[in-house]
Design goal:
Strands 1, 3, 4, 5, 6, 7, 8, 9, 11 and 12 form a ten-stranded mixed sheet that branches. Strands 13, 14, 15, 16, 17, 18, 19, 20, 21 and 22 form a ten-stranded mixed sheet that branches. β7 and β8 form a beta hairpin. The protein folds into four domains: 191 residues, no CATH class; 141 residues, no CATH class; 216 residues, no CATH class; 169 residues, no CATH class. α2 crosses α7, α17 crosses α27 and α18 packs across α27. The chain is of the alpha+beta class. 44% of the residues are buried. The protein starts with 13 loop residues before the first helix and ends with a helix. The protein is elongated and about 100 Å long.
Length: 862
């Protein structure tokens, strides 16, 4: 027989044996493996679903923009209002541009077409083909459709898919809704797109000849913009063209215009991604916990393998290989769950973007492969990274010390204090990141993760202290079992600490987000009470929940001005204008009490002085706009006007939560003199004392003579509508809270199941000594309940810290607004209830299994 030199490792057989050992462990502990797979799967699913939603929303915006801009490189657009079509005529006559096309656009809807917003696109078919090519480039137009499209009043084209889905055929008429008015149009024909992307774009477009579009929208003699294609190799061409344009008209690149619009949603999407990552972090706690548990259970096996010559690297590879199997299986399952979950999250994210930012006309953009690849790769590599510490622990097992469990727990108690100190340092590092003066939210999000992990590392110290403190109480209440349960948990910290940390993090997220949402709701409620002082409000219907920019019929204003029972009527004009910093939302008001009805962060005087400053030409900035532009009182704001750039003094900065992009307030008379815009988009009515707002609303709805559909509602109804949008905005946040808690529940279930089953021999001895089934249930439920109670208590300070970070760091940097912190006791009660309930529910399965096991069988368990 061949002798092997002492200390020399056997290299030929062990790798195959180790693979077999690892696979057998995964198979023989199917429930443990299943729970690990589910933990990582749910974490990946949440992350993938949010990424799908964000990617789909961005793709929908891009396709919606491309549907109307096509291949244009530049646009000639007005500073405000619309362009006179003579500008296009003069441009073509001048010969300075070879490729130019006039465009009229408007958002419309039709009940026949499903009621969703559609882009009415008015084009000149003879100039438009280089830009969009809807009437060429392989797209199939019905035979004989072009002639009525160009000659018949109200003629439009639809995609063949949209028309077929709506049951329309060429030659039929249907109605379009535009700014509260109804317009009858004639379907001249349908377009069959040559490719999938064009089909999706066309499904959101109603195509019309430019003259037809002008008639439908009331823009006779006017256009919205002129699309251009300028040569890339002639950079000076744009500057020369701008110099030739009349006052009040600007040349800008399509890329910069679309980029500035899409950038508005970037912070919102980044925050959703960060929140979804918390669910993955909780899942990684589960992986770390379960892998550590499997290493601890097999210390004896690893010690034996080491004594037989297996190297440390081979033991390390064994544990990492098991994690790889779990990571791949969990990530693949997570991708499937993420796609299913994404069907709901896509709708939630798109609805919020449409409510708060801009309206997209393209839906159903498909599943971006990049989101799936990203989710799968992150899931696998995060699992492997989380398994490294347990794998290192397994590789460092010494054969002689492998069987000594007491040594392991003693080492764990020593490490607990070291981990607590490390947690403090980690949380402190996170707080230091918050001090970096930047508008970029990435340092804030990284700091948030560091703080949460730091608190999680502190949880073992807190858990030990709480359990030791509660032992006398549980002893008095439940006798010897009441003293045994907390001591068992303290003596098995190597198993229980990470599970409690995972549950604590999930519950802390629930508490923190609940406090943030509650604070936001409280702040918005106070803001609405201060800002909305009118009794009745009138506006035209809009596709976004933001302040309407659709003009009200001037005839309505004339009638309202002499309506009986009114104390006064305040006019408001909301629109978007251009500035050197991009587009800015502006509101012009006639409200003489505007200085009293705003909550100011900074102001140049008392309310009356602020109102007077507005009358004299100053402006008020909302907090988000002031933060975005870095302005405060005493500074000046540059805006583009029809006569050139003009500087406006800033008289105050007011709190505002209507839009994260911000807005500015100006006096109506000043606005009309400078921009020549006399439209009104909202009317606030103040009633005489004793008037019934609901009765006035009914009278206005029946008595106003106009062909425009109007939204007339009392103050109370408007506030309710605003809060409904608020709740819709945070619906996805609440869903992420629930999913993070489910992931933590799986982690607790896994730990408790394994922990109790590992104690089978101990339970067998207790049953042999007379422990009844009822007492066994009590012991198990006490242990699980104490774990939940500990996690719930420790989650309270973590949740408060997280909510403060979300309010005063993340929200402020992302959206520019300051929220007032509201300490809601209900959030803590809910968190504690979730933690204890999850832990007790997770203890049912191990308690049931152990109670059915005979004492002799349990004692024989190895």
């Amino acid at each position: 027989m061949k002798r092997i030199a002492p200390g020399r490792a056997i290299k030929t057989q062990y790798p195959r044996i180790l693979v077999r050992l690892g696979w057998q462990y995964v198979v023989h502990h199917a429930w443990q493996s299943f729970l690990m797979v589910m933990g990582i799967a749910l974490g990946v699913a949440v992350m993938v679903s949010i990424d799908l939603a964000n990617a789909s929303a961005s793709r929908a915006f891009m396709l919606s923009a491309e549907a109307v801009t096509g291949k244009a490189t530049h646009q000639i657009a007005p500073i405000s209002g619309m362009l006179d079509e003579s500008i296009y005529t003069n441009l073509r006559i001048s010969g300075n541009v070879e490729l130019a096309a006039p465009v009229v656009t408007a958002l419309v809807s039709s009940e026949v077409l499903g009621g969703a917003p559609l882009q009415l696109l008015g084009i000149d078919p003879f100039a438009d083909s280089p830009f969009r090519g809807y009437l060429g480039n392989g797209n199939k137009l019905d035979t004989g459709a072009l002639t009525p499209f160009l000659t018949r009043p109200g003629a439009v084209l639809l995609s063949a898919e949209l028309a077929g889905r709506s049951g329309l055929t060429p030659g039929e008429s249907f109605t379009l809704n535009f700014e509260g008015r109804t317009r009858e149009v004639y379907l001249a024909g349908t377009l069959a797109a040559v490719d999938a992307l064009t089909r999706r774009s066309l499904n959101g477009v109603v195509l019309a000849d430019i003259a037809t579009a002008q008639e439908l929208t009331g823009k006779i003699g006017r256009i919205d913009r002129i699309d251009l294609i300028l040569p890339e190799d002639e950079p000076d061409r744009a500057a020369a063209l701008q110099a030739d344009l009349p006052a009040g008209v600007r040349l800008e690149t399509v890329e910069s215009r679309n980029g500035s619009i899409e950038q508005m949603t970037a912070a919102f999407q980044l925050n959703l991604t960060a929140l979804s990552m918390l669910a993955l972090v909780v899942g990684l706690f589960l992986i770390y916990n379960t892998m550590t548990f499997s290493v601890v259970r097999r210390r004896g096996l690893f010690g034996t393998l080491r004594s037989l010559g297996v190297t440390r690297s081979e033991v390390f590879a064994l544990v990492i290989g098991e994690a790889l199997i779990v990571g791949i299986a969990g990530s693949l399952l997570g991708l499937g769950l993420g796609i299913l979950l994404g069907r709901n999250t896509v709708g939630m994210v798109s609805q919020t973007i449409n409510d708060l930012y801009f309206t997209t006309t393209v839906r159903g953009v498909g599943i971006p492969v990049s989101s799936l690849v990203k989710g799968g790769v992150i899931g696998v590599f995060a699992t492997l990274a989380t398994a490294v510490p347990p794998a290192v622990e397994a590789a460092l097992v010494e054969p002689r010390a492998a069987q000594l469990r007491s040594g392991l727990e003693k080492k764990t108690r020593l490490i607990t204090w070291l981990m607590g100190l490390s947690g403090l340092l980690l949380a402190g590092s996170g707080v230091l990141l918050f001090q970096i003066p930047t508008k970029n939210n990435v340092p804030g999000l990284v700091g948030t993760v560091l703080v949460v992990i730091g608190f999680a590392m502190l949880s073992a110290v807190g858990m030990r202290g709480l359990l030791m403190a509660v032992t006398p109480l549980t002893g008095r209440l439940f006798g010897s079992l009441g003293r045994m349960a907390p001591r068992n948990l303290v003596n098995t910290l190597s198993r229980t600490a990470v599970a409690v940390a995972a549950l604590m993090v999930a519950v802390a997220v629930t508490i923190g987000v609940s406090l943030m949402i509650g604070s936001f709701r409280h702040t918005v409620t106070v803001w609405l009470e201060q800002t909305l002082q009118g009794d009745v409000y009138i506006s035209a219907p809009s596709f976004t929940a933001n302040t309407s920019t659709i003009p009200i019929d001037p005839q309505v204003m004339e009638q309202v001005a002499v309506w009986p029972g009114l104390s006064r009527a305040d006019w408001l004009r909301s629109t978007v204008i251009e500035s050197p910093e991009g587009q800015v939302r502006i509101s012009a008001t006639t409200n003489p009490d505007v200085g009293k009805e705003r909550l100011f962060k900074a102001s140049s005087g008392n309310p009356d002085e602020i109102t007077q400053a507005l009358r004299e030409g100053s402006v008020l900035l909302s907090e988000p706009l002031a933060n975005r532009l870095g302005l405060t009182i005493g500074d000046t704001l540059l805006l583009y006007t029809p006569t050139g750039e003009k500087a406006f003094p800033v008289a105050g900065v007011f709190y505002d939560y209507a839009s994260s992009e911000g807005s500015l307030l100006i006096w109506m008379e000043q606005f009309r003199q400078i921009w020549g815009d006399t439209a009104v988009t909202s009317i606030g009515l103040r009633l005489l004392p004793g008037s019934d707002p609901d009765q006035v609303v009914r009278e206005l709805q029946s008595g106003l003579q106009t062909d425009q559909q109007l939204i007339i509602r009392p103050n109370r109804s408007l506030r309710q509508d605003v809060m409904e949008v608020f709740d819709r905005t945070f619906a996805i946040t609440a869903a992420l809270q629930i999913l993070a808690t489910i992931v933590a529940f799986i982690g607790v279930l896994s730990t408790l199941l394994l922990l109790q089953l590992e104690k089978q021999r101990e339970i067998g001895v207790l049953k042999a000594l007379g422990l009844t089934g009822k007492q066994l249930w009590l012991l198990v439920m006490l242990e699980t309940g104490l774990m939940g109670l500990t996690a719930g208590i420790l989650a309270a300070p973590t949740g408060v810290a997280l909510s403060l970070i979300l309010i005063y760091v993340i929200n402020l940097r992302s959206f520019g607004w300051t929220l007032q912190f509201d300490m809601n006791p209900g959030a803590f009660a809910m968190g504690l209830l979730i933690a204890v309930s999850a832990a007790l529910l997770a203890g049912v399965v191990p308690a049931w299994r152990l109670s059915r096991m005979e004492a002799a069988e349990a004692i024989r368990y190895e």
